[in-house]
Design brief:
Elements: E1 2-3, H1 12-25, E2 33-34, H2 41-49, E3 57-61, H3 63-80, E4 86-90, H4 96-99, H5 110-119, E5 122-133, E6 139-145, E7 148-152, H6 153-169, H7 172-177, H8 181-198, E8 202-208, E9 211-218, E10 220-224, E11 246-251, H9 254-263, H10 272-277, E12 286-288, E13 290-296, E14 306-308, E15 311-313, E16 318-331
Parallel strand pairs: 1-2, 1-3, 3-4
Antiparallel strand pairs: 5-6, 5-16, 7-10, 7-14, 8-9, 8-13, 10-11, 11-12, 13-16, 14-15
Helix pairs in contact: 2-3, 6-8
Length: 339
Amino acid sequence: MVANPTARTGKAAKTIDEAIAAFETRGLHPEFFPTLPEGKTVEALADRLEREDCARVVYLGGDGTFAESAKGIILARERAGVDVPLGMLPMGTANDQGRSFGIQAGANALANNIAIIAKGCEQWLDVGRIEAFDEHGELLASDLWFDNCGFGLSARILAQRNRDRQRVAKVPLVERFYRDKWVYAGAAFAELFKSMVAGSQFSSEVIVDGEVVEWVGLTDLIVNGTILYGGEWIFIEDSRPDDGLFEVVPFRSYADWVSAALRFHKRNPVTVDDREVVGIPNREFRRARSVQIRLFRPQQGQPISAQIDGEEFITAHHYRVENLFHHLRIIVPEDAHWV
């Protein structure tokens, strides 16, 4: 079980102990594996798995711990052919990965999520590999993602959220109340307002499985791998996490961005059929296994931010995104459905 005992100023330690006790009650034999600083968790976890005496990995924590655990599993398979599934005990408020498969987050969901892991029903997950290149075609960075990647406004909001989170952490009284989704909401409002005043639209040339598509006047461009985007929105209702394809979705204006946030929220009762009846067009998108993205900003325009799974990624002119088909096994409910 991979977890960070110092998370939430050490409060995670109690939950870790509760999870270990619950696993032992079910006749399982958990081994606690603490996360390491400076990105060292992935290789250390792969080293541990290569001893070939683990049946599964379970992460307890936020989306970052999910990513580190998943990358450790993948690295162990690539290096030594050892492959195990990943179980989920999400504690973060985002829980972007778990929500698409019917897994709730938090201490109150711990018992139910442990029961899901004990049953061991597995689901394949396609994984995204993103590479960033400079204007000369030199590779700048490469990484894996498990839910989505994006370019433009949503990535700037995440960058602003991270800066706000650091500032809030220095003021304990404020941190107690202004945290998690409140911080994100504040960053979203600030960035949307700044963008509408200053203007930060961009153009793109996107090659989707060999087809060249040009989109202009964009505020956002996302590549999504599961049915839920950011744990909250369903842009493409027949999206699947295991079909070898990603959905590429453009947003053409700030009004389009705000409208989509309302129309395609997962709790919106209006269906695709309802929208067709009243003449509201569905979301424009392309579906592909391989995506090449070139971004163009106006002169004097600000750099086009990038993100993967809610974390900042390097800003570049050219990106390549590949779908790694059936690249990770995850443990899910038998009747998995988004929540």
